[in-house]
Structure formats: C-alpha cells, structure tokens
Amino acid sequence: MTESLLQRRARLLGPNTSTFYEDPVHLVRGQGVHLWDADGRQYLDCYNNVPHVGHCHPRVVAAIAQQAATLNTHTRYLHEGILDYIEALTATFGPPFDTALLCCTGSEANDVALRMAQALTGKTGVIATDHTYHGNTTATHQLSRSNPPPGGYWESVAFVPAPDSYRPLGGEAGMAHAQAFAAAVDAQITALNQRGYGFSALMLCPFFANEGFSDLPPGWLDPTVAVVRRAGGVIIADEVQPGFGRMGSHFWGHQMMGFTPDIVTMGKPMANGHPVAAVVAPSATMQAFRSNFRYFNTFGGNPVSCAAAMATLRVVQDEGLQANAADVGAYAKDRLAELATRHQAIGDVRGRGLFFGADLVLDRASKTPATAFTKRVVNAMRQRGVLLNFLGRHYNVLKMRPPLPFSRANVDQVMDTLDAVLAETPLP
Q1: Domain 2-53+320-424 is classified in which CATH homologous superfamily?
Q2: Which CATH number describes the domain made up of 59-318?
Q3: Angle 58-68/303-318 helices, nearest 10 degrees?
Q4: pLDDT tens per residue, range 333-349
C-alpha cells in the first residue's frame, strides 16, 4: 500500500514532493497527541504544531461543523465572527496591537507584513538570518538561504548569520554574542542603503526555531532592536512556531524575549489545522498598509475559519495549556539533561515550553555536528512509534514540538525511547 501511494504521489503531485522519514507514514486518524497509520499502529506525535490543542479537538470540530452548517462567505459581507476573534486575539497582546488582517497561510501573512513595512518606511530592503524559513510566496522565498530561489536573490535582500548559543558568533556567548548579531544587522543595513534600496524590515522568528532554537536569554535582542530603531526600520516577528502559549512562560515568543515588534505574523497553530493565518499590527500601521495596497483575500477571515480560530484560542485559555506547556516542557528538558549524562552524542540541551530538543554532536570537545547520525536517530524513533524531526544550520538538532496537551507521561515515552535508540545507534 505504501509503495503504491508513493507511486501515485509521484504521478499526480509531481517529482520531489517530500515526505517525512525514510519509511513514510501513511496516517489515517488522529486524536489528542496520537496518530494511527493504515495498519492500525499508534504513534506519539512529538512534532506537529498544527493540531495545537490536539488532533481533532472536539470543541474545534464542533465549531467548524456548526458554522459550516450555518454560513460561510467572505469579509465583503458583514459578520461578527471576525470582529469577535480579532478582539480576543489582540487582547493577548495589549497596546499598541489593536488590529489584524486574516489570511490563510503563514506565507501570505509574512508577504503582507513585508508590504506593511514598505508602506511604513518607503523602503524595500529586508534582512533575515541565513538559515530561516518565512514562507513560499515569491517574496518570502527570497528570505530562504537553505532553499535558494531559481534566478538568484534580489539585491534588496540581505542575510545575517543565524544565532547559535552553542557555537556563538565571535566565539563568546551571552550578550557578547548578542552584540555580534546586532553588529551584523547594522552592517547589512549599511549595505542595503549603499545599494540604493534602503532598509525596510528585519524579519525574524523570536525563538529562531528553524535556526536550531538556541537558548537565548530575555534581552538578547535588545542591541539588535536598538540598531533597527536607529535606522528607521521595522521589526516583523514571525510567531508561527513560538506563538499561542507554546513557550509556556509567555503567550508569544517576542514577549518571552522582552521586546515589542512593529508587526506580528502567525499561522499554522491558530485554528488547529484549519487554514488560518494573521498579521497583527497597530491601527496606524494597518491604515498605512490599506492606504498603499489594495488587499482582499476571498477566504481570509471567513466565518468558518474565524469559528475554528476562536475555538482554538479558547481551548488554550480554558484548558490551561500554556501552563501545561511550561510544566511539561521543563520536565522534558530535565529528562534530556539526564540523558546527556549517559549519551555523549547529546552536546547541548535546549528549548522553552513545549518546543525542546538537543544538538547532537560527533564529539563534545569539537562540537562537530552529527548530521547523518541525527537523521538515523529520527528514523529509528519513527520505527519505534515516536514522531519527531530535526532542523538547525547543520540539521543536527532534534526537534520536539508536540501538541499542547502533551503530558509528563508522554515525555517519559519519548525519552525512554530516545534512550534506547541512542544506545543502539553507534556514532560514526
């Protein structure tokens, strides 16, 4: 069955349509933090942030079904759902964030945010890190160094080295590392000005998730924020991965890092799998955007999407899932730290809330990334019924980002399985 599905995919979807794992999983059902394949085998989902409040949460399913059976149209007609949701969403921020634009994907949200920055600054130069991902539109694809666009990069795009607390820029950790990152941003602002594009925006994930989610303390971005403000630019915080309570200590990643961006984007988790995304900004920013760009999205903010998003937000709040993320995430890091005392491949344990993992190395002294080894570990975990993955500049950081109802018992299953896999998977 799996082989025939792969053949159909190649024929109907085209070549190079990626799948997870060397032995792809044919999923047919999900519930809570578990998934089942076509053979009835159960998997623990330690990876997916799309089902933020758990696969097929009954409150979200009911909200979608009820609204779909009542009305679904677009925002050129009036309906209360979008207004009620934006009020509830912006209440998680506080001033100055009081407006939002709803769309369907994080890629769309980031594309809109770049145009907002242009409207505010009159400039087009954009800076991102050299190992990030902000989407797959033509504009956001330009920000990906790991997947270069055909035809090359626009001269209006510049990159800075991704932060790495384990292998810090300049060789020093802490605020020296922060100052080095800020200096790199400052240098690229100068370069964009010299090329005639000016500086519009710095776009970043406040957790630097795709870069390997290094442990960076609150205030680490303060020197960079000062550089951007001095240059008259805009900071766009891409909260697709750290947002909606996943960090445990704070509802949003930028709050955890202790700074206020100018524009915030979000996507995947906000409606538990229903395609919803948003850009949140102060009203003056939204007015500048609306005055400079004619924007309409047929499906953005439709009543069913708003019902799904509202139900998801209320579940996070009503079921105490942010507090659960803080408690279970801390427990997961403790378990990882204990594993590190017995497995030399674990070079660095990191994470916040329910986004945790480890930098795997061939040698702790040299900190040489164990890229191929990490891939073997991930595939071995899949064979044992635990789904996780890897990322980072060297693709050697185990990535565990489960749905928010994840429990300590779930963590124990992950860590016990990882203990056995590390014991049985030899380092090169």
Answers
A1: Aspartate Aminotransferase, domain 1 (3.90.1150.10)
A2: 3.40.640.10
A3: 160
A4: 999 999 999 999 999 99
